[in-house]
């Protein structure tokens, strides 16, 4: 009986010890499970947010709203020389660069060809003298194919010619960059080269002027560091001077 | 003995059951603890990132780099009419609005008074004809006191007058907004009112022209929705037209 009593006591002690351990462990479970759950759900949401999206990017942020609204009130006229595009164009102080108040900036950071196509109407329906287009890098970075970008730019030209046949259209090549495509993480440069080739052909077919900026800004496999603001995508002051000088004879 | 054996067997079963429970619970802990830990550390980092920072904001993002670099190459001259400030100014197509190629945009989104003070040198050392200043809303949103903002703007004026005494200085009031201070989440409007009062006095003391835009854009306790691009801080096209009309007689 004594042995048995000893065993029972030691079992009881062991159970008491384990019970304490289990209680602590369950408390830790209760505390950690919801936090770990939240963490996992957020991670899944994050990776879902990176999943491929429709390739035609539509720019709808607050800056697009500000700029679009301003562009609808500040009107273009038949003397206007309009620069349409993305952040490269938006940051280009065109009236100042060409010392010409007829030069009007219609660039919006993050814009892609779809957005330009959507907003070309209220530029060209005022029959501007000239338009300078540079768009496509945001589409390519977002994974769009050079062919789809070039076809959307063809639509921009088609719309312009239909509404305002006397507007001179200048199609600028896309600048080189060392950036990668957002999702695929592969360099976008070969897509840029391919797009620019298509744009050159497109300009020839549609009787627009093609302006090769790519080779002026290229060094090695990307944007020449002389003209790089520091992110290997956007221009610095010297870059803007080179851009101005490359366009001067077409603007004036 | 039988009772005792039964007890021992049931204790053994109980222990076996508890052991399984404990193992499962510990496994769950091992899985969840690191995730919960990461979640908590990130939360703490997030709340730390919201903690009060030095009140003079210094704008150092990529857009600041692009714009600053461009501004250093595109030079101001003695005929220039320079608009210096934050996003409000940056998105204001001034050359177009006033149809005057001497109008130069020196606005940078997110800029505060400290940044304007840092970059006023390479504007005023070319002795521009006029400068229009509008800055301070980003400082106030960031928690700076109206007094500290107004004193920094006093330094901007002091620097300008010391380097270029013949430059006419136009001090514009800060626009109304319904936004709250980033950290305190309290409305910033009373700070704007207080800053504008100080700017009016400052303009009087320093013999600058004070331009009251606040009352032109106010409705109720914020930005008049007629001029609001949709975020109750930035202007829409009609807002830019009103701003242009409010400045016309000073620009020309």
Describe what you observe in this structure.
Chains A, B: GO terms for molecular function: phosphatidylcholine lysophospholipase activity. Chains A, B: The chain crosses the membrane at residues 21-41. Chains A, B: Residues 95-240 form the SGNH hydrolase-type esterase domain. Two copies of one chain form a homodimer. The first copy, chain A, is α/β, with parallel strands linked by helices and 252 residues long. Chain A has two domains: 1-51; 62-251, Rossmann fold (3-Layer(aba) Sandwich). Helix content of chain A is 55%, strand content 11%. The first copy, chain A, has helices at residues 2-49, 62-73, 87-90, 94-97, 113-119, 121-124, 137-141, 146-163, 189-205, 214-217, 237-251; strands spanning 81-85, 103-107, 130-134, 168-172, 209-211, 218-219, 222-223. In chain A, the strands form two sheets. In chain A, strands 2-1-3-4-5 form a five-stranded parallel sheet, with helices on both faces. In chain A, strands 6-7 form a two-stranded antiparallel ribbon. The mean pLDDT of chain A is 91.
């Amino acid at each position: 009986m004594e042995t048995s009593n000893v065993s029972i006591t030691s079992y009881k002690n062991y159970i008491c010890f384990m019970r304490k351990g289990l209680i602590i462990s369950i408390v830790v479970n209760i505390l950690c499970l919801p936090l770990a759950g939240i963490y996992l759900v957020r991670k899944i949401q994050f990776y879902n947010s990176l999943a491929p999206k429709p390739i035609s990017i539509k720019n709808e942020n607050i800056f697009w709203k500000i700029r679009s609204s301003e562009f609808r009130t500040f009107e273009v006229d038949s003397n206007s020389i309009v620069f349409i595009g993305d952040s490269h164009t938006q940051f280009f102080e065109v009236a100042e660069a060409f010392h010409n108040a007829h030069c009007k900036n219609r660039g919006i950071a993050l814009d892609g060809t779809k957005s330009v196509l959507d907003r070309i109407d209220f530029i060209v329906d005022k029959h501007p003298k000239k338009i300078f287009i540079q768009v496509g890098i945001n589409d390519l970075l977002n994974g769009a194919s050079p062919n789809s970008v070039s076809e959307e730019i063809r639509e921009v030209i088609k719309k312009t010619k239909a509404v305002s046949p006397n507007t001179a259209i200048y199609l600028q090549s896309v600048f080189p960059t060392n950036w990668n495509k957002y999702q695929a993480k592969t360099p976008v440069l070969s897509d840029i080269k391919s797009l620019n080739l298509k744009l050159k052909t497109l300009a020839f077919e549609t009787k627009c002027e093609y302006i090769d900026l790519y080779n002026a800004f290229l060094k090695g496999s990307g944007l020449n560091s002389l003209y790089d603001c520091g992110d290997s995508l956007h221009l610095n002051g010297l870059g803007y001077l080179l851009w101005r000088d490359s366009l001067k004879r077409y603007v004036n």
